[in-house]
Amino acid sequence: MTSDGRLAVVAVGGNSLITDAEHIAIPYQAETAAVTAGYIAQMVSEGWRVVVTHGNGPQVGFILRRSELGAPEVPPIPMNYATSNTQGSIGYMFQRSLFNAFRRRRIDARAVTLVTQTLVNQDDPDFLRPTKPIGPHMTEENARKHAREQGWAVTEDSGRGWRRVVASPRPKKIIELDLIRELVSENTVVIACGGGGLPVYYDDKGDLTGIEAVVDKDYASSLVAQGLDADMLLISTGVEKVAIHFNTPQQQWLDRMTLSEARRYTAEGHFAAGSMGPKVQALIDYVAATGGEGVVTNPDHLSRAVAGKAGTAIVRD
After folding, report:
1. 28, 47, 167, 200: which one has the fewest Cβ atoms less than 10 Å from its Cβ?
2. How far does Cα 269 stand from its chain's mean position?
3. Is residue 1 part of a domain?
4. Measured between alpha carbons, how far is 138 from 131 in angstroms, rounded to an integer?
């Protein structure tokens, strides 16, 4: 993309901002974001240009639940507007933290949060099959109670508890991609595609229209990385590496997968649809399209993963 440095898209999971059940409050999330921002600043100091994307699964769930509880007093918040709220709030956490990290390290760089829209197909069949987990983990009893009383779709989430799931259409295009490219070329770390971007479609008049859904941030991040021809797509999540036979006695952590291996493991069902599945598929799509390196790791290992010393890498055969 530019002769001034390698480009990485770093996708930070919304769950990775919450270290445990005792640290859910926003100040704790901001502290975790600041730690991740330090690792990103380190990448910038090493010559990387960076686009930061982020998830919002727990956070958008919190907003929607607050909206439901406050319904007798205030108008409800549509799901896509809840996502826009998280683009601002989580973007603020990273933008402020990056400013501070750059200042402390005397790095000549800027950071900006960009409200980002993601084009989807309004007839996507995924609107009829809710799969995207949002909100906190809960017991099966509480999940089924919400399903009865609030009409939620719920599912078990990879052995970690039960969560609400909502419609998640596949992203087709990042509307602001050219603007992201322009900002990155001007030595700016762009925080974009928060929560996968705000889902929109073109109506009969050619106008962009919002639609109720949550786009998967990993698929959206892959589109950003492909569109910018990034050198690396790094997905930060709650575990250091990807595993096959996850949560079984045969569990095996992986340092590296070729595209062929990643596709085979995916076909064999090793990666859950609402958890590691989208991350691995997003990296498969990116690596196949660009030849760049795809990496999964957790925030604490970002720097080492960039150097090839941690995480799970997906590379061409």
Report:
1. 47
2. 21
3. no
4. 16
Question: Do residues 141 and 218 both lie within one domain?
Answer: no
Identify residue 122 by its one-letter amino acid code: Q
Q: How far apart are CA 116 and CA 191, in angstroms?
A: 9
Residues labelled catalytic? 14-15, 132, 217, 279
Are 225 and 161 members of one domain? Answer: no
Range of the domain at 178: 7-121+170-315
For residue 25, count CB atoms less than 10 angstroms from its CB and return exposed for 0-12, middle for 13-18, buried for 19 or more.
Answer: exposed
In this structure, are 152 and 174 located in the same domain?
no
CATH number at residue 298: 3.40.1160.10
Q: What is the pLDDT of residues 94-103, one digit of tens each?
A: 999 999 999 9
| 52 close to 44: Cβ distance less than 8 angstroms | no
Are 149 and 244 found together in one domain?
Answer: no
Tell me the per-residue pLDDT of 260-276, one tens digit each, with 9 for 90 and over.
Answer: 999 999 999 999 886 89
* Range list of H helices, the chain: 26-45, 57-69, 79-105, 140-150, 177-185, 217-227, 259-267, 276-290, 302-306
Tokens of 63: 């907003």
Using the CB atoms, write b or e for 245-269: b if 16+ within 10 Å: ebeeeeeeebeebebeebbebbeee
Pair 116, 137 in one domain? no
The mean-pLDDT minimum among 21-30, 93-102, 142-151, 308-317 falls in 142-151
**Segment 131-147 mean pLDDT:** 84
pLDDT at 135 exceeding the cut of 80: no
* CA atoms in the 13 A half-sphere facing the CB of 113: 21
Determine phi and psi for 75, rounding to 5 degrees: -65, 145
Decide if 228 contacts 221 (C-beta within 8 A).
no
Domain match, 83 and 204 both? yes
